[in-house]
């Protein structure tokens, strides 16, 4: 219930779709909590290079709580569409990603990361064969990925 109030205040009039998304996100958070789990954005743990980059882009220049709230809204909206989060990072969902609190520049970066991921250029095994400098250059070629984000990538 508190999440619904926050959504209503933060998003203005949330409308039935946003209330459904917020409720769905709240149910998922409760399930995760009861299972003893935590989401990737909260823990910083990523399974793939792309997931790490998505998380880092969302978290840039934000407090942990703000980033977690935005990431939670992105996850809830993706689940509402029955999509995995990376699938949600598509041009046709750009406005919805923005409505989760993600800036235009960050949306552009997320879409660029997704495109590179779909091209197979974020394969962990391939990236692991590169030197640190070459891996950083490769990742920094992605729009919105800077040196710090590239250097923190876990291979």
Quick gist of this model?
The protein is mostly helical. Helices cover 68% and strands 0% of the residues.
Q: Indicate the overall shape.
A: globular
N-to-C series of helices and strands: HHHHHHHHHHH
Mean of residue pLDDT? Answer: 79
Helix proportion: 55-70%
**Rg from C-alpha positions?**
16 Å
Structural class: mainly alpha
Number of helices: 11
DSSP strand count? 0
Report strand %. Answer: under 5%
Question: Runs with pLDDT <50, length 5+?
Answer: 1-13, 29-44
Largest sheet: none
User: In angstroms, what separates the terminal alpha carbons?
Assistant: 39 Å
How is this structure best described in words?
It is a single chain. By secondary structure, the protein is mainly α. The chain contains eleven helices and no strands. Helix 1 (2-11) packs antiparallel against helix 2, helix 2 crosses helix 5 and helix 4 (49-59) packs antiparallel against helix 8. It is globular and about 40 Å long. It starts with a helix and ends with a helix. Residues 1-13 and 29-44 have low confidence and may be disordered.
Relevant terms:
mainly alpha, 11 helices, about 70% helix, disordered N terminus, about 0% strand, single chain
Topology:
Blueprint: H1 2-11, H2 15-34, H3 40-43, H4 49-59, H5 64-80, H6 85-88, H7 94-99, H8 104-118, H9 124-128, H10 132-140, H11 147-151
